[in-house]
Amino acid sequence: LLTVSAIVLGVSILFAFPQRNGSDGEDLVMKMPSPEEVQQQMQRWQESMKPSRWHKLFDRLIGDWETEMSIYMAGPDGPAQKSTGTATFEWAVPGKWIHWHGDGDMFGMPVKQFGMMGYDNFKQKYVASWHSSLETTLSVAEGTLTQDGKRLMLWGSMDEPMTGQTDKTVRYDYIFRTADEIVVQVHDLHIGTDKTKVVEVVYKRKK
After folding, report:
1. Domain range annotation of the chain
2. Does 13 score more than 60 pLDDT?
3. Three-state helix/strand/coil letters over 140-205
4. Among 78, 145, 167, 198, who pairs with 157 as Cys (CB 3.0-4.6 Å)?
5. Within the chain, what is the greatest distance between any pair of CA atoms?
6. Do residues 174 and 39 lie in contact, with contact meaning Cβ atoms separated by under 8 Å?
7. 28: pLDDT confidence band, cut at 50, 70 and 90?
8. How is 38-51 classified by DSSP, letter by letter?
9. What is the pTM of this model?
10. Residue 15 in this model has a pLDDT that exceeds 90
11. Domain 53-205: top CATH class
C-alpha cells in the first residue's frame, strides 16, 4: 500500500519543475521531470528516511527513570516547589522516534505526561512534542545538539493561562550529566537574558 508520504511525493514530482514559456507574464507551463530527475528525487527521499548518527542520541534516554521536578514561581533563586515521579522512554519507531510517559504531581494534583521526540533529517533538527493530563494544549519545539554532545537545546512556544499570555518563547535544555542522570530545564525567554529557568526536572535512571 502506498503511504501518504509516497502519494505526496508523487504529486510533488509532477509540480516540481514549473517553466515559464515565452515572454514575461505568460502562464506557467509544467515541464515533466525526466526519468533521471525522478530517480534523483526518489533517492533523496529514501535517504531522508534512514536513521542518521543524530538519532543515536535517543539511546541515552531509553529506559525507566525516577524524577524530581522543581518549579520556580519566584525565579531560580527563590524557593522551589518540588515533587517526585517516574518516567519511561521507549522506542516508538526503532532507530527513529521515541515516546515517553511519566507520572507525578503538580501543585498537589496528579498528572500524567506524554511526549514524542525525533530527528528530522530533512530540516536537520531535533523535533519534539509534549502534552499532559492537566492541559488541553500541545507544546512543540525544535533545536540542535551542542558540539560536545552534552546538551540538547530545543526552542518552542508556551501559553500561560494564568497570565493570559500566548506563544511565549521558551527553551528546553536536555543536559546529559552522566549515562544515568539527565537534567531537563525549561527557560522562559520573555524574562530576559539571565535567571530564565522556571522548571527543572532531574532524571535518575532506575537501577
Report:
1. 4-49, 53-205
2. no
3. EEEEEECCCCCEEEEEEEEEECCCCEEEEEEEEEEEEEECCEEEEEEEECCCCCCCCEEEEEEEEE
4. 167
5. 72
6. no
7. low
8. HHHHHHHHHHHHS-
9. 0.81
10. no
11. mainly beta
Quick: pLDDT tens for 80-118. 999 999 999 999 999 999 999 999 998 889 999 999 999
- 3-class secondary-structure state, position 101: strand
Q: 526536572: which residue's cell?
A: 201
Side chain identity at 64, as an amino acid letter? D
Residue 131: all three cell numbers together:
502534552
User: What percent of the chain lies above the pLDDT cut of 70?
Assistant: 86
Asked if residue 145 lies in contact with residue 176, where contact means CB atoms within 8 angstroms, the answer is no
Cα distance between residue 152 and residue 146, in whole Å: 6
Residue with cell 502534552: 131
